[in-house]
Design goal:
The chain has about 500 residues and is mostly helical. Helices cover about 60% and strands about 5% of the residues. It has 20 helices and three strands. It binds zinc ion.
């Protein structure tokens, strides 16, 4: 009996996933090709399809099938059972939010986004403040609908980093912050690398061609994906055999486009690495944004900003730019792309200071959701924390609390996943080195397959069968921790900046 119910359930779920894929295609087109006058029509099409997908997924029929299957879970094989349980998890979260709330939230997000665009342009927080106040109210309401233990922030965090708790993150960040601040100060006191050679114009087509070569070497399958240009780089997935990425090319910046490609390529390798048998199910998904981000940051930062990578690729880059890089060594590239400089903007931050940008946002979000501060306090608090953590003065809100889109989109609990991605990546990498002592020799040869295969087995093929934390523990033998990341930073920057006696493991200084 339950086998025929299971097949019917799987077909219905597959239909929801097909509609979601169609929505993703429309979003991709909107970012990449859509003409400027098409916005309103596209908005309508997306709203119709989103409502349709939601209706299909939350139908009583779907709920009934899943409940029936859960009642006969013993007769299902482990994968079938997991799929049913994961669907039940998503179903429960989806039906807890009343339709009227979902609609109100979507409308407010749209209003708030437009207010944020104007406020940012004019660098005037007060234009965004009323919308952010409404948004915080709605998010607190959302937390009540979804339910939580401890802080209401946990209900929001769950959406992006399932199983993670605010209390756990606080402990993690609390131990990390003073050590990152101390390292950034040591580096600031050292001589900065000479990067004047980068101040040239870099042909866009050559940048593009070079990025395609690197992506091919990483193992990104261009017969099951493509790269295009967009304002904000992203990865999107319509199917196991259609995972697309975008990047942006800046003729004044030799590396930002390439690093964008490698970053998105890391996300895409993950999605091209799900199991064939999980196709068109919820199991062909990442269990959290943090684990997804660990893949992009592994490829971008740990591989793409390493010396062996540039020992391999600099000769090829020189061929793309005859006469422009003749005297440059791999060591010079390595130093230039790892320059540490406390700055105002998160997306431009280096590996050392990046997580400090996240902690500041996390602390403010938690305080807002818990009602410990008012929205009007945000700019002053932001600026004080920037001074405390990074030692920089924020001249205007455009370069401070108005720089990110996330809050305008109603996403709180999202930022911490970026920091977790950095920590997970370093922890996976440390274990990879133990398993493969020849690791860096492979990278110096331009052979990325050992790294890719390792990640495929330990992370990609797991799909959504385990939480991020369980994946890390199974792959490395230890719970998620900040220590491997600190060891990684310490090793990297001590060598790059000639720092002596850096003790990242103690939090004394
Ligand atoms: Zn990313």
């Amino acid at each position: 009996m339950s086998n025929s119910v299971f097949n019917r359930f799987k077909d219905r779920l597959g239909e929801v996933i097909d509609v979601q894929a169609a929505i993703a295609v429309l979003h991709w087109d909107e970012e990449v090709y859509m003409p400027s006058k098409a916005g309103e029509g596209r908005g309508r099409q997306l709203a119709t399809l989103s409502a349709l997908a939601h209706r299909m997924f939350t139908s009583p029929d779907m709920g009934g099938m899943v409940e029936e299957l859960l009642g006969h879970a013993d007769s299902l094989d482990p994968d079938q059972r997991k799929l049913v349980e994961e669907t039940w998890y998503d179903y429960q979260r989806a039906v807890r939010l009343p339709d009227t709330f979902v609609e109100r939230f979507a409308e407010e997000c749209s209003r708030s986004y437009h207010a944020w665009v104007t406020a940012r342009k004019e660098s005037n927080f007060s234009l965004f403040q009323p919308c952010l106040e409404t948004m915080v109210e709605l998010l607190r309401e959302k937390a009540e609908y979804l339910g939580y233990e401890g802080s209401p922030y946990n209900a929001l965090l769950e959406e992006f980093e399932r199983g993670m708790r605010m209390e756990e993150l606080s402990t993690l960040f609390f131990s990390l912050a003073p050590r990152l601040i101390a390292l950034a100060r040591r580096i600031s006191a050292a001589d900065p690398p000479d990067t004047r050679w980068l101040d040239q114009s870099w042909d866009e087509q050559s940048q593009w061609n070079f990025s395609l070569n690197v992506l091919t070497d990483m193992g990104y399958d261009f017969e099951a994906g493509r790269q295009d240009r967009s304002v904000h780089p992203f990865t999107t997935n319509f199917d196991l055999y259609d995972v697309r990425i975008t990047t942006r090319i800046d003729p004044r910046d030799l590396f930002s486009g390439l690093m964008g490609s490698i970053h998105e390529g890391g996300h895409a390798l993950y999605e091209q690495g799900f199991l064939e048998k999980d196709r068109r199910t919820l199991l062909a998904q990442a269990p959290s944004l943090g684990i997804h981000e660990s893949q992009s940051r592994f490829w971008e930062n740990i591989i793409g900003r390493s010396l062996p990578f540039w020992q391999h690729y600099l000769p090829e880059l020189k061929k793309q730019y005859p006469g422009q890089l003749d005297s440059i060594t791999p060591e010079q590239v390595h130093r230039a792309i790892n320059r540490v400089r406390p700055s105002l903007i998160r997306v431009e931050a280096d590996e050392c200071t990046y997580n400090l940008h996240i902690m500041l946002r996390f602390e403010i979000e938690v305080a807002l959701i818990e009602g410990a501060i008012y929205v009007e306090d945000v700019p002053a608090l932001w600026n004080a924390k920037m001074k405390q953590y990074l030692g920089v003065d924020v001249p205007e809100d455009r370069l401070g609390c108005l720089q990110d889109i996330h809050w305008a989109h109603g996403a709180m609990g999202y930022f911490p996943t970026y920091a977790l991605g950095n920590l997970y990546a370093a922890q996976l990498h440390e274990k990879m080195l133990q398993d493969m002592p020849e690791f860096w020799n492979h990278i110096e040869q331009g052979d990325f397959s050992p790294a890719r295969q390792w990640l495929r087995g330990q992370v990609h093929q797991v799909g959504r069968r385990q939480t991020a934390s369980a994946i890390i523990e199974a792959a490395t033998g230890a719970k998620p921790s900040a220590e491997p990341f600190l060891r990684y930073l310490c090793g990297k920057y001590s060598a790059l900046y000639g720092l002596k006696n850096v003790d990242m493991m103690s939090s004394k200084d």
